[in-house]
Design goal:
The chain has about 200 residues and is α/β, with parallel strands linked by helices. It has a single domain, classed as Alpha-Beta Barrel (TIM Barrel), CATH 3.20.20. The protein is built from four helices and nine strands; from the N terminus they run E-E-E-H-E-H-E-H-E-E-E-E-H. The chain has a seven-stranded mixed beta sheet. A two-stranded antiparallel ribbon has the order 8-9. Helix 1 (about 50-60) packs parallel to helix 2 and helix 2 (about 80-95) runs parallel beside helix 3 (about 110-120). It is globular and about 45 Å long. The termini are far apart. The structure holds iron/sulfur cluster. Iron/sulfur cluster (SF4) binds near residues 32, 38 and 128.
């Protein structure tokens, strides 16, 4: 069994759920939806491997400035054993922080371990991205077949009102630009041209 979570990146963001959140993108996705804009996260090649302890330490450093964490990818359930271990310890160590969890799998595909993981979350966003159902008015979802389910009573519907899709642009100290959210391809191209 692998002992490190394969992670693409970790960012502080305000567009992946209520409040400021530590967002963790898992690396590797076996679902491979047509039109996915995170295709660079499909590969299972090791990217930024972190042990559960190392990931918990990163949260410890930020815990006072965030409302919770959001886990997406890539496909988090493709690393379910380590994800379950991480979330069990996260709930114990940070009981006041919330968990928003994404998966591209459908309910009918969930395994026993996936159900254990879901029980630890507060919000579950499920189902694969479907290009022909793209809807930019949805909050936190790219296509209308994606569900948003309240697993605990941490949040309510008022916290997840739909509207216009949000985009966040960060310029890293290295000068590299990171675009977060669900932007139209044309917007990404325009931003890249402006940045060149
Ligand atoms: S599940 Fe997510 S990361 Fe995987 S292909 Fe679909 S949209 Fe992309």
């Amino acid at each position: 069994m692998k002992d490190k979570i394969n992670i693409n990146s970790i960012e502080i963001s305000e567009i992946y759920g209520p409040g400021k959140r530590l967002v963790v993108w898992f690396q590797g996705c076996s679902i491979r939806c047509k039109g996915c804009w995170n295709y660079e996260m499909w590969s299972f090649e090791s990217k930024n491997p972190l042990s559960v302890n190392e990931l918990l330490n990163k949260i410890q450093e930020k815990k006072d400035e965030i409302e919770g964490i959001t886990i997406l990818g890539g496909e988090p359930f493709d690393q379910s054993t380590l994800l379950l271990d991480f979330l069990e310890r996260f709930k114990y160590e940070f009981p006041k922080l919330s968990i928003i969890l994404y998966t591209g799998y459908k309910k009918s595909q969930f395994k026993e371990i996936d159900l254990k993981i879901i029980k630890l979350s507060d919000i579950l966003i499920a189902n694969p991205y479907e290009e022909d159902k793209r809807d930019i008015t949805l909050n936190l979802r790219g296509s209308s077949n994606q569900s948003l389910e309240f697993i605990s009573d941490f949040y309510n519907i008022e916290d997840f009102l739909d509207g216009e899709t949000k985009v966040e642009i960060k310029i890293l100290p290295s000068g590299e630009m990171v675009i977060l959210g669900y932007p139209e391809k044309s917007l990404i191209n325009e931003i890249k041209i402006m940045n060149n």
